[in-house]
Amino acid sequence: MSRLRIFDAEQPQNPSSVHTDHAAIARELAKVGVRFEQWEASQPIAPGASQDQVIAAYRSDIDRLMREEGYQAVDVISLTPDHPDRATLRKKFLSEHTHSEDEVRFFVAGAGQFTLHIQDKVYDVLCEQGDLIGVPDGTRHWFDMSEAPYFVAIRLFTNKEGWVANFTSSDIAERFPRMHPLATTA
Prior knowledge:
alpha+beta; 35% strand; 9-stranded antiparallel sheet; Jelly Rolls; 186 residues; two-stranded antiparallel sheet
C-alpha cells in the first residue's frame, strides 16, 4: 500500500501525519510541488516484458507527461533481490541530494521509497505498483530500494543523458527510517 508520512525535520521518530489514500497523498504532495499520480496499463504486461513492451503499455501517460513537461527521453529500470550490485546501487542514492532536472519515476511493479526534505518537513513516500512520483529539480531528497530491492520503473528525463546526483553533504537521511523489503514480490 502506498504511503506518505510527514515528519518535522527535527523529529524523525514520529510522523506528524500518515496518509495511505492516493487522493490524500497527491493533495499533500501537490502542496509542495510534487506530482503523484496513479496510472493503469493499457494492456497486460507479462513478467520479464521488454523495455519496449512496458513503455507501450503506458504510452498515453508517457506522451502526456512529455508534452506537459518537455521530457525528452524515457527508459525502464528493474532491480531484483538477487542483483549482484544491489548493495552498491542502493547506497548510491541513500544520501540527501538534488538534481538539475526533475526526477520522474513510475512504478510498473514493486516499490521504492522517496524521501523529500522540503523546508522544515520531511515527506517520506512509499511508492508501489501504479504510482508515479515527480520530484521537481532542486528538491533535496534521497531514495531507498531496501536491502532486497524489487521494482520495475519507467523513468522520464529532460536531458537525454539522464540526471546526476548533487550531494548536499547533510547527514539528515541517516536519521530517518529506511525502506523495509516488501513482504511479497508479486
